[in-house]
Design goal:
By secondary structure, this protein is mainly α. It has one domain. Helix 1 crosses helix 2 and helix 2 runs parallel beside helix 4. The longest helix has 21 residues. The chain is globular. One of its GO terms (biological process) is protein transport.
């Protein structure tokens, strides 16, 4: 249980734009996809909880990903953020 909690904290820090080394880069794409979908779900339920200031650089990096799952989840998050502003 502690390991999962640690991984989710690291994913949150990664989504905030900080450099995080997960050790296994091939496992990073599914985790980033899940983190983007989690943020999307949270943002749709309560937009006031998610502070999106300064996410431009991080979102641009996510759009450069080669993984299709990461791209679709990132674009979904980007569209939701754009629709609300």
């Amino acid at each position: 249980m502690r390991k999962k909690k640690y991984v989710w904290k690291m994913l949150y820090v990664y989504m905030l734009g900080y450099d995080v080394d997960f050790g296994y880069m091939e496992l990073q794409a599914p985790c980033v996809k899940k983190a983007a979908l989690c943020l999307l779900r949270l943002y749709r339920k309560n937009p006031d909880v998610v502070n999106v200031d300064g996410w431009e650089d991080r979102m641009a990096q996510l759009l450069d990903e080669r993984d299709v799952g990461v791209l679709t989840s990132s674009v979904s998050l980007l569209v939701a953020l754009d629709e609300s502003s």
